[in-house]
Write a structure and sequence with these properties.
Elements (H helix, E strand, L loop, with lengths): L1 H6 L18 H18 L2 H15 L6 H14 L4 H14 L16 H25 L30 H10 L1
Amino acid sequence: AANFILQSGDPGGINAAGPGANVGKSVVFNYAGEVLFEAWQATGDPKYFRGMEDKARRILDVQPVYTDDMAHRVEFLKRYFPSNYPATAAAVTAREKNEPQATSRVPYKGHVTTPEEAAKLAKRIETRVTADLERLRQIQNADGTWGFNPGKSGDGGKTWKTAATNAPEPSPTALALLAF
């Protein structure tokens, strides 16, 4: 599965589980990133780490259309992406250089991240996760649930509000709880 993910393009966003569950683009990047994480952990093959970096960059670019988009993004970046990312990226780069045989024969032309790029990406991740968690707090329904509506901001993203009728739904509620 991980090799297929590396060799194919991601869809632009699908409803992965049928009506009412896991909508938006971030679900695709989160689940693909999870598969790549597991493959990297199992094999140590740098190509899977490079694939995870690609998914991180792509999930950071998602403009939330659903609450699920923010929750899936936070889950991937905090649960599967290395918390010590710049150091991990440097170690993977060293392995690629010193042990070229560590990468299997399955082709993947991943971008080799420089230390400067890794530091910038780590900062971008930290900033986005903080903003997504704050937004999730602000759009939470009074009863503790979340709906699919990711809210609107009238002040450039400082505050977020949803319509008074943001119907509680199990999927965004569960995903928001996972994010926290």
